[in-house]
Amino acid sequence: MTSFTQTQPSVTLDFFQASFAEATPPVGLGAVLLALWYDGKGDWQEAHEIAQAADTPDHCQLHAYLHRKEGDAGNARYWYNRARQPMPAVSLREEWKNLVERHLLKESRR
Fold first, then answer.
1. pLDDT tens string for the chain (110 positions)?
2. Does domain 13-108 have CATH number 1.10.287?
3. Domain ranges of the chain
4. CA atoms within 13 A on the CB side of 44
């Protein structure tokens, strides 16, 4: 079982993606990374459930990304506005990567 803990100095994107080989998410992930893990594994529905669980700017941006991925541009725009973020001009893959890297960095500073 993979574990993300505060004793691990910095988790890389490659390490995060390698954890997709596991049946369950790594222990210690924050909610946004947990949702991105499920999305990376192809479980949009579980990622969406997590995104809906809170109303923070990070959750709103996650929610926006998920609706953009779903192809619901109107709903995505609503959630980007709630997150006070513009609609990204990058690919969905690039947006996912950027979100993961940002949240890995945030969690490494906790």
1. 555 544 344 578 898 999 999 999 988 899 999 999 999 999 999 999 999 999 999 999 999 999 999 999 999 999 999 999 999 999 999 999 999 999 999 988 87
2. no
3. 13-108
4. 9
Answer for the pair 87, 77: CB distance below 8 angstroms, yes or no.
yes
Cα-Cα-Cα-Cα torsion 88, 28, 108, 92, nearest 10 degrees, comes to -10
SS3 3: strand
The Cα–Cα gap between 48 and 95 comes to 16
Report the C-alpha gap between 75 and 80 in whole angstroms. Answer: 9
